[in-house]
Write a structure and sequence with these properties.
150 residues, alpha+beta, Alpha-D-Glucose-1,6-Bisphosphate, Chain A, domain 4, seven-stranded antiparallel β-sheet, 7 strands, 29% helix, globular
């Protein structure tokens, strides 16, 4: 059994502003209350085959060991394993007029996914919303600072 969850939002900045914030994995916990901590464990940041560990606070305390599948300013993907669940998680950041459409989708599989009911799925999508709200806020702040310096 697998579960697919999706979410999208728009930020009022360019994709490079999103990437400037997103790529700093070790700082995710500073602006994203869903993440307790995240750190690189092997390889170069955002290179295919690199590994990181992410500990989540929400929707419940979980830790995932993740392997990067793809990492660029416009598309990021990893597969994370933990607590009998495997999650393949994708993000895209695409310019759309004056803003950036941020999309994420995740496929959850493994024995543990049998116990992820509708309520937990909704809570997980709420985490994506919070993640994108906070990511957009940080990236939009960078864009405003850039405009103020120009």
């Amino acid at each position: 059994m697998s579960i697919r969850l999706e979410y999208e939002a728009t930020a009022k900045c360019r994709p490079e502003h999103i990437w400037q914030v997103f790529q700093k994995l070790e700082q995710w916990a500073w602006w994203n209350p869903s993440v307790a901590r995240s750190k690189w464990t092997s390889g170069e940041p955002w290179q295919k085959g690199s590994h990181f560990r992410m500990e989540l606070e929400r929707p419940r305390r979980l830790a995932f060991d993740c392997e990067v599948l793809e990492g660029s300013a416009n598309k990021v993907a990893w597969v994370g394993r933990g607590n009998l669940v495997t999650g393949e998680h994708w993000f895209t950041f695409e310019q759309n007029g004056d803003g950036t459409v941020m999309k994420t989708w995740e496929t959850l599989s493994g024995f543990g996914s049998l116990f992820i009911g509708k309520g937990m799925q909704e809570k997980t999508v709420e985490v994506y919303k919070l993640w994108f709200d906070r990511l957009a806020a940080e990236a939009e702040k960078l864009a405003r600072e850039e405009r103020a310096r120009a």
